[in-house]
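Worked problem 6 (solution included).
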Amino acid sequence: MTKSVEELAQRFLGRDARELGKRELRVLRTMAERQPVSIDLHTAERPDGFWDRLADHVAAVGGSWSFIFGFFIVLLAWVTVNGSALLGRGLVFDPYPFIFLNLMLSMLAAIQAPIIMMSQNRAADKDREAAAHDYEVNLRAELEIMRLHEKMDAMRAEQLATLIRHQSEMLELMRGGGGRGGGG
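Solution. The predicted structure is:
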């Protein structure tokens, strides 16, 4: 660990650098090196595999209104075609009470649910990564604001000292100048 990281840890966080987590140390290192901590997570993401992209696509399709409406139309057609046996209109492959339809719906749910959960887990991982990055950016901003306050306070103290020095000089000149003018 560099000396400047240790100094920044003590000065701004009031803790020893060895007590800090990886994120805090990374932020302090970027401060010490004057490097940005923010990155675009969408361009810096790890590459997704085929199955990851497929899970995301299945979740996107399965969680859409178009899927719901399309599936409703398929179910309505299934029931209409296979319900015609009740009216004596011919042979059907899944007569009422639609046992084969129930089997298909159960299999669809059994396959679709874990795929959607995989996609949700990946989204949650991305959200956690984004939250961790947001924390780092916010911490860096807070520390930089603290650093700016220190600089402004130092400048103000220097200006005040200069002003007091000039005022003292002016008072000395006035005392010295006033004594000569009154005695002549």
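Discussion: The two ends are 71 Å apart (CA to CA).
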